[in-house]
Amino acid sequence: MSTKSLPDLIPDAKLKLPREAERTIAGGLTVIAIRRPAVPLVELRLRVPFGKTPLPRATLLSQALFTGTGTMTSVDIAAELQTVGGGLSAGLDPDKLLISGNSLASGLDRMLEILAAVLTDPAYPNDEVGTERDRLIDHIQVAQSQPAHLARTALLKRVYGKHPYAIQTPEPEQVRAVRPAQLRALHADRVRPEGAVLVLVGDINPEKAIDAAEKALGSWTGPAKDGRIPPAPPLEPGPLLLVDRPGSVQSSLRMALPALERTDPDYAALQLANLVFGGYFSSRWVENIREDKGYTYGPHTGIEHFAAGSTLMVAAEVATEVTGPSLLETLYELGRIASLPPGEEELEQARRYALGTLRLGMSTQAGLAGLASMYAGFGLRLDHLREYTAALSSATREQVAEVASRFLAPAKAVTVVLGDAEKVQGPLSALTAVERGAE
Amino acid sequence: MARRIKIPATKYPVERFTLDNGLRVVLTPDRSAPVVGVAVVYDVGIRSEPEGRTGFAHLFEHLMFQGSENLEKLAHFRHVQGAGGTFNGSTHLDYTDYFEALPAGALERALFLEADRMRGPRLTEENLLNQIDVVKEEIRVNVMNRPYGGFPWLKLPPVMFRTFANAHDGYGSFGDLDSATVDDAQNFFDRYYACGNATLAVAGDFDVATATEMIRRHFGDVPARPAPERPDFDEPDLDGERRDTYTDRLAPLPGVASAWRVPDPISSFQDYLPFVVLAEVLTDGDASRLVERLVQRDRTVTSIGGYIGFMGDEFQVRNPTALLLQAHMPPGGDAEKVLRTVDEELDRLAADGLRPGELERTQARIATHLLRDTDAVLGRALPMAVLELQRGRPEMLNELPKLVGEVTEAQIVAAAATLRPERRATVEVLPGATA
After folding, report:
1. β-strands B35-42, A309-319: how paired?
2. pLDDT tens readout for residues B323-334
3. Which of A13, A109, A324, B298 reaches 20 to 30 Å from A40, CA-CA?
4. Angstrom distances, CA of residue A268 to CA of A152, A264, A275, A434
5. Which residue of chain B comes nearest to A318, CA vs CA?
6. Is A66 on the interface with B (CB under 8 A)?
7. Is A75 on the interface with B (CB under 8 A)?
8. In this complex, which of B84, B116, B376 lies closest to A364 when CB atoms are compared?
9. At what angle are helices A180-190 and A55-64 packed, to 10 degrees?
10. SS3 state at B365
11. What is the distance of C-alpha A155 from the center of its chain?
C-alpha cells in the first residue's frame, strides 16, 4: 500500500463583496440591488416586518397573498409570472412576512409590476381565500402528524412561555374562523413599505434595478405599525419535558440553550463553540452519537436568530431503545465543551469550516439574496461579512472556552423529548428529572 | 397575450478527457466565485442490487465514507470540512454520486480524497455494523416514523414494475441490511466501483491546465478495471391498469399517486423531452392545468405535483422510468374521482391542444429552474458528471433550456394522449391516524 500525503490548502483570497446599490425609494421601501451575473436570472426577497400580528390571520394571509388583485385572478398572476420565467411565494415567521421569487433577468420589470399589484391592490376574493383556508387547515393537520413539528411545538412553548414566539403555528379551528375581510384589513394595516426591505440579486445593473423597483413600487406607501416584539424571556431550565407519542420508533430529542445575537462581539466565538460541539458533521457530538454509536442519522445544532432573541437549538431523532444513552452522550459532550477548552486542531478545523461555508453561501444568486435579506432583517448589510470573518479568524481558544462555559453548559438547557413515553421515561429518569407533558 | 420571452442560455465551457485507466473527466471552469465543486459518479445504483440485498447500494454509499487507503475513519469528513467545504453522497436508481463543494484553494485536497476511496474503501466489520445502524435510523426518520414516508417513490415501483431490479425497495428491508457482510461489500466494490465505470467532474474557480495535472497525479495510478456490463433493465409496458392501496398509520389525510411509462430518456430523448414539459404544463403553479382544475376549481385535492423519474431526476435517469402525478386530498377525499378528473383533463389536452401562451410560459419557467440550478458549482459538476456517464455529453447542461424551448404543442398533445388509464399504475394511501 502506497502512502500518500494530504495536499495542502491554498489560502483563501481576500473576501470580495459583490457590487451593490441601496436606496430608499419613494413610498418608503428600502431596496438593495446586488450584481451577480453568472446566470441570466434575478432573485427577489421582500421582507415586511410582521411582528405582533394575530397568528391565524397572518398565516392565512401569507398563504392567500397571491389569490387575486383588482384586475388579476390567481391564475392570471401565476400565468403572467410564468411568462417571464417567474414565480413568487410567501412565507411567515414570528418577525416577518417574506416574499421570495425569481425570474429570467429580462423579466424583472414585469415581476416587479405584478408584485406591486399584489401589494397595493389585493382582492382576497372570498372563494379563493376559502380554498386556501381549507388547504392551510389540511396542511396544519399533516404538520401535526410529523414528529419534528410536534417536538418543535413543545419546545417553543417550554422555551417562550407567554412570549409571542411560543406559538408559531395556528390551530386548525382558529384558521377556520378567519374571514377574507380580516385579511384585507390586516393587509391594509401591516403590508406597508416602511421598515420593509426588498433585495434583488442577479444579472442586473444595481442602479437600474432600483429604478425599476421605484417605478413599480413607488406608489406602495404607508406608515409602519410598531411591530416590535418584547425581548424573549431568559431560558428557565427545569425537568426534562417528556411528550408521549405512543408507538413511536424514534424519540425526538430537542434542547434549547441560550445564545448571542449576531452583532455581539462574542458571537463568532460562540458559533465556533457550537461547531466544535455539534454544529457540523465533524463535531464531537455527531462523531460520537452517529459515527461511533450509530444512535442517529442526522443530528444537528444551530443558532436560531429572531428579532427579539437568539437561541442555540440541538436536535436529534434517535432510536427509541437508545433514547437514554443518547441523552447521556449529549449531556456529556455539552459538559465537556462547557468545562474544558477545545483542542487547537479541532478549533482550526471549525474555523475553516465557518469561513469556507460563508464563501460557499455567497457563491450563488440565491445564497446572496438569502444572506442579504436575512442580514437586513437585523439592520446589517453584506459588509458585515468582513467584520464577521475577521472575528471568526481571530477568536482564540480562551474566548471560545469562555463563551462555551456561559452558553453550552448542560445545566442551562431546556430539554424536550417526544417519544414512546412508556419505553423511554425510565431510561431518561435515570439521568435527569422528567415531567410528563399534557397529552 | 402570448408575448414570448427569449429563453437565454449559459455558456459554461466544457473540457473532456479520459485517463489511461478509463476514468472519464469533465472540467467546467467558471471564475465568478472563489469556490469549486467536485463530483464522482459511479454507474451503479439501486437497480443493480442483488436479490436478498435490498438497500445495499445505499448502504455501500455510506461505507465509502468510512476511510480508505490513506485515510482513517472520520478523516474524509474532517478533511473536507476542515478545508471549509461540504460533502455528501446519494444513491439513485442508476448511479451513485459523491461530491464536495469547497473554497477554490481546496481543490487538490478534494481530488486526493476522491482518488483515495476510488482505490478502495476500508471495509471493516465494525464500520459495517455502525453504518447499518445509521442507515436504519435514516429509514426510520424518512419512512417509518413520519406520515407519507416513502410515498410514492418506494410505494409505486412495486405496483408498476414486475422485475426485482425495478420494483424493489431501494432503502432496503432491515432483514436484508442486517445480513449484509464485509465480503458482500468487497464484491460490490470490485464489480461496480471500477474507474472505467466512473466519471469525475470539476466545476468552478480553477485553471484547466493546473486541474488537469492534479487529476492525472491523483487519479492516474488508480488501477485500471473495466466497467462491468450494464444489464438492460427494460420490461414490457403495462397491459392493463395496476392498483394498490395501503394504510399509513401516521397519515391524517388520504393521498394518491399514479405513474405512466415514458420513452427511453437516453435512446429516445426527442420523444422523451415532451413528457418533461408536459409534467410542468399539468402541475407547475396555480396556472397549470391540474392545479387550476383540482385544487382551485374542484377542491378535490389540496396539492398536486408532477415530475419524471421516481427520484425527480429527469435528466439523470435511464429506462425504464415514468411520469408521476401525486396528490394529497382533503378529509374523505376520493381518489377515484381525482383520477377520473385527471383523465378528463388529459383527454381535453389531447383533443383541444394548448391555450395561447401556455406552452411558452411553461418553457420559460422550466428554463429559470434549470438555469438557477446551474448557478451553484455542484449544480454543474453533478449533472455534468452524470450526463458524461450516461450520454457522453456533459455540454448538454448548457443546451437544456433551449431544447426544452423547442418542444412543440403537437409533441405535448401526443405525449398527453399516451397517458391512458390502462397504462397507469396507481397507489393510494389511506389515512390510519385519527385526525
Report:
1. unpaired
2. 999 999 999 999
3. A13
4. 26, 8, 11, 34
5. B137
6. yes
7. yes
8. B376
9. 90
10. helix
11. 16
> Looking at the DSSP assignment, which residues form a beta bridge with residue B39?
B99, B201
CA nearest B285 in A: which residue? A78
Q: Are A95 and A378 in contact (CB under 8 A)?
A: no
Q: Which residues of chain B does A321 touch, with a Cβ-Cβ cutoff of 8 Å?
A: none
pLDDT, mean of residues B214-227: 96
- Chain B: closest CA distance from residue A279 (Å): 12
Q: Which residues are A30's β-sheet partners?
A: A24, A197
Sign of CA dihedral B302, B303, B304, B310: negative
**Is residue A86 within 8 angstroms of chain B, CB to CB?**
yes
**CB-CB contact of A172 with B332 (8 Å):** no
Closest CA to A75 of A120, A119, A114: A114
Q: Give the model confidence (pLDDT) of B34-63 as tens digits.
A: 999 999 999 999 999 999 999 999 999 999
Residue owning grid cell 462491468: B228
Convert A275-343 into a string of H (helix), E (strand) and C (coil): HHHHHCCCCHHHHHHHHHCCCECCCEEEEEEECCEEEEEEEEEEEHHHHHHHHHHHHHHHHHHHHCCCC
> CB contacts < 8 Å between A and B, how many?
254
Whose grid coordinates read 409571542?
A164
A49-67: pLDDT as tens digits: 999 999 999 999 999 999 9
Which three cell numbers, joined as nine digits, stand for B265?
430518456
Which of the 8 DSSP states describes residue B53?
Answer: -
Environment class of residue B106 by beta-carbon count within 10 Å: exposed (0-12), middle (13-18) or buried (19+)? buried
Q: Is B117 helix (H, G, I), strand (E, B) or coil?
A: helix
CA dist., res. B153 & res. B167, Å (int): 10
Q: Which of A306, A286, A326 is nearest to A424 (CA)?
A: A326
CA-wise closest residue to A128 among A54, A76, A56 = A76
| CB-neighbour burial class of residue A22 (10 A; exposed 0-12, middle 13-18, buried 19+) | middle
- What 3-state DSSP class applies to A8? coil
> What whole-number distance in Å separates Cα of residue A20 and Cα of residue A30?
13
* Residue ranges in chain A modelled with pLDDT below 70: 1-3, 439
Q: How far apart are the C-alpha atoms of B154 and B152, rounded to whole Å?
A: 6
CB contact under 8 A, B134 and A290: yes
CA–CA distance, A246 with A423 (Å, rounded to integer) = 9
User: What span, in angstroms and rounded, lies between the C-alpha atoms of B105 and B219?
Assistant: 19
Q: Which residues neighbour B298 within 8 Å (Cβ) at sequence distance 6 or greater?
A: B341
Give the CA-trace dihedral at B135, B139, B142, B145, to 10 degrees.
Answer: -130
Which CA distances in Å does B377 have to A257, A350, A364, B141, B370?
Answer: 35, 22, 9, 29, 13
Task: Give how far A89 is from chain B: nearest CA, Å.
Answer: 10
Are B384 and B14 contacting, i.e. CB atoms less than 8 angstroms apart?
yes
Q: Do A6 and B109 touch (CB under 8 A)?
A: yes
B82 and B90 in contact (C-beta within 8 Å)?
no
- The pLDDT tens digits of the residues spanning B136-156 come to 999 999 999 999 999 999 999
A106–B8 CB contact, under 8 Å: yes
* Closest CA relative to residue A242, chosen from A39, A106, A437: A437
- Tell me whether residues A357 and B6 touch, CB distance under 8 A: no
Cβ separation of B33 and A364 shorter than 8 Å? yes
Q: In Å, how far are B43, B59, B219 from B119, measured between CA atoms?
A: 16, 19, 9
Contact map slice: A 216-255 vs B, CB within 8 A: 247-250
Residues of A in contact with B112 (CB under 8 A): 4, 6-7
The DSSP secondary structure of A62-122, one letter per residue, reads: HHHTTSBBSS-BHHHHHHHHHHTT-EEEEEE-SSEEEEEEEEEGGGHHHHHHHHHHHHHSB
Q: Is the peptide bond before B158 cis (omega within 30 degrees of 0)?
A: no
